[in-house]
Amino acid sequence: MTALAPHLSDFLREYLPRDRRASPHTSETYAHAFRLLVCFAADRLKAQPSTLQVEQLDAPMVLAFLHHLETERGNGPKTRNARLAAIKAFFRYLEYRLVSSLDQSRSIHAIPMKKADDKLIDYLTRSELQALLDAPPLDTPCGLRDRAMLHLAFAAGLRVSELVGLQLKDLELRPPATVHVQGKGRRERILPLWKETVTALRAWLAVRTPQSASELFLNARGQSITRAGFEYILAKHVTSAVAHQASMSKKRISPHVLRHTCAMHTLQATHDVRKVSLWLGHATLQSTEIYLRADPTEKLEALSAMIPPGIKRGRFRAPDRLLAMLATAATPRTHYAE
């Protein structure tokens, strides 16, 4: 039996950042996947997480974990596939360091990814977005911080990992105001900021207590905001905004919906999917095409440019009596006895 903890620690702390040059966001995502897996396995085996062995994370255990994600945690196929990708990457790493795990690794690699439905994205209308931006109170430091986070998340189309990972040095508020973002796959981009966004950021920086932390947004303890922390903040203000925009109650508003909203508003303003792709930091235009499918204005423009097909005027012809009789002749008649 081989202890899991040393190999998993080397994989996350050494192999990913040093050999694979994975971004901090990727390392954090993989670490979160293994937190879920280790806790699930420990609970199932009635053991302490630190005492788990590599051999205990076999294919049946991984399959049970994936089933747990979908049925009990309510995760969709995309999230399920992301967790499975992290597990497969770890066992691919083990193949060159633990020869005894080859058969186990082969069984786990044979677990297929699940096909996900390519549904239309959710996004907020202008009135719904304004209600959300106006929800945080402006008489408390936390309210000013939340308002600045919501403004910046929408204006720059940030992923939640990009938002909580922003450093003070990434922000330039002198005209022209910009934010420097390191996105997925180590792709960097510099985005200009609206005056409204700059105003919200200045208000937060004015009350932000100087701390040793270099992150732009801090929690009440002076530590950087986490993903879960921003999800909680967003859910709280969505509840307040629903009182002014009842239509929001029918939508599932996650942090990524703010990114979708930025993309949709940018597309409707520019009618150029390439600009949307540059703004969001997509590697290819294929990732941006989902917004074209969700935008009805693009279809309306295409419809107005097309010539409707001509339909010839038809003539009414009364049905032939004999054919009508034959059509109903096969229908059995019911006779009632007197």
Structure notes:
54% of the residues lie in helices and 4% in strands. The chain is mainly alpha-helical and 338 residues long. It folds into two domains: 4-109, DNA polymerase, domain 1, CATH 1.10.150; 126-299, Intergrase catalytic core (hpI Integrase, Chain A), CATH 1.10.443. α11 (255-270) packs antiparallel against α12. The longest helix is centred in the first third of the chain and has 22 residues, at 24-45. The relative contact order is 0.08.
Instruction: Give the CA-CA distance, first to last residue.
Output: 89 Å
CATH level 3 topology of the largest domain: hpI Integrase, Chain A
Q: Helical percent range?
A: 40-55%
Radius of gyration: 28 Å
| Averaged pLDDT | 87
Order of helices and strands: HHHHHHHHEEEHHHHHHH
CATH architecture classification name of the largest domain: Orthogonal Bundle
User: Which strand-content bin applies to the residues?
Assistant: under 5%
What is the topological layout?
Elements: H1 4-19, H2 24-45, H3 59-71, H4 77-94, H5 102-109, H6 126-133, H7 141-155, H8 160-164, E1 171-172, E2 178-182, E3 188-192, H9 195-207, H10 227-242, H11 255-270, H12 273-280, H13 289-294, H14 296-305, H15 321-329
Antiparallel strand pairs: 1-2, 2-3
Helix pairs in contact: 1-2, 2-4, 3-4, 4-5, 6-10, 7-9, 7-11, 11-12
Question: Which features would summarize this protein structure in a list?
Answer:
54% helix, hpI Integrase, Chain A, 338 residues, three-stranded antiparallel beta sheet, mainly alpha
Describe, in short, the structure shown.
54% of the residues lie in helices and 4% in strands. With 338 residues, it is mainly alpha-helical.
